[in-house]
Amino acid sequence: MVEITGHPIYSCRKCRNPIALHDDLLSKSFKAKTGQAYMFGHAMNIVVGAKEDKQLMTGYYTIANIFCSKCGEEMGWTYVRAFDAREKYKEGRYIVEKAKIVKEY
């Protein structure tokens, strides 16, 4: 587990494992299975699942689901590849469902 020195942080709602720093938050304008989701430039304490090609609302992507490394809770996904040139900025970014995290100070 990564040791955190900066605050605030976003942690897994289930086990409080730190997932992302507030400084890495890029957008709150994403949608996921459970509703609102956040885009982060970096994530930590996660396990990346198998890659899959998937049609999402904004286009066709290769994504991989991400899971909390402590409790195994599915947190969201990471964009591995965007097939549309206008969506390339999402590559390497992490989408984390708001319902799966808690903001801690």
TrEMBL record:
What is the protein named? Protein yippee-like
Q: Which family does it belong to?
A: Belongs to the yippee family.
Q: Which UniProt keywords apply?
A: Metal-binding, Zinc
Signal peptide per UniProt: none
Yippee domain residues: 8-105
The molecular function terms in GO held by this entry are: metal ion binding
Per its UniProt record, what InterPro entries does this chain match? Yippee (IPR034751), Yippee/Mis18/Cereblon (IPR004910), Yippee_fam (IPR039058)
| Superkingdom of this protein's organism | Eukaryota
Organism expressing this protein natively? Sesamum alatum
Under PANTHER family, the record lists: PROTEIN YIPPEE-LIKE CG15309-RELATED
| Pfam families hit by this protein | Yippee-Mis18
